[in-house]
Design goal:
This protein is α/β, with parallel strands linked by helices. It has six helices and seven strands. The strands form two sheets. A five-stranded mixed β-sheet has the order 3-2-1-4-5. A two-stranded antiparallel sheet has the order 6-7. It is globular and about 55 Å long.
Length: 203
């Protein structure tokens, strides 16, 4: 059986189009398949000013002064890949992680460095939605903030910084995995039948 590791990651970007914008920040937490943390890292990425929109800079906290010592993207990607255990299947995980993957795939291609990830992804939004179906709790949105607020992990705004988002995503993911763990029938949510009777939903 393959040895899976999960790479909870978050990127900040100069905008939302990988063809037009650069990655400005990367936060990574590597876990084993039981979500036990193995390694972590965060980097400010040297981005081209013309590939950072005013909106992207405001959301991600970018400024030329704050990014004066940011690292070249090739160095960031190399250091990032060095965090991953050799021989393990690295699965990207995060909130709306497909967006991060699009930017990272383009960055790895541009640097001519082998892409280190499996083609599968693990997304918090899917887990949050699955939890809402099991518990019959309608959700207003599938955002990280909504999932974390519903879990009672935050109260208010969620800052858009790469490592903070990666950490909150992992904590929120652990919360909902725990809520979906098998439980004795007496503790399981009941599913209402057509005739008004109920029985454990796991039947």
């Amino acid at each position: 059986m393959a040895e899976f590791i999960f790479v909870f990651l978050d990127c900040e970007f100069g905008g939302l189009d990988p063809e037009l914008h650069d990655i400005t920040e990367l936060g990574v937490i590597v876990t084993d398949y039981r979500l036990v943390e193995l390694a972590s890292g965060e980097w400010k990425v040297r981005a081209r000013p013309e590939r950072i929109s005013p909106e992207g800079a405001e959301i991600g906290g970018y400024s030329p002064e704050a990014w004066a010592h940011a690292l070249p993207v090739r160095q960031v990607l190399t250091e990032f890949a060095a965090l991953l255990p050799r021989g393990a299947v690295a699965v990207p995980a995060g909130q709306n992680v497909r967006m991060d993957v699009l930017f990272l795939e383009k960055a790895y291609r541009g640097c001519e460095i082998d892409y280190p990830f499996d083609y599968h992804v693990i997304d918090l939004a899917t887990l949050f939605y699955a939890w809402s179906l099991v518990y019959g709790e309608p959700v207003a949105s599938l955002s990280l903030r909504q999932a974390a607020v519903t879990a009672g992990l935050v109260d208010g705004k969620v800052p858009h910084r790469a490592m903070a988002d990666a950490r909150l995503t992992l904590e929120t993911f652990r919360h909902y995995v725990g809520r979906l763990a098998p439980r004795p029938p007496s503790e399981a949510p009941a599913a209402t039948l057509a005739d008004g009777d109920s029985e454990p939903s796991g039947r």
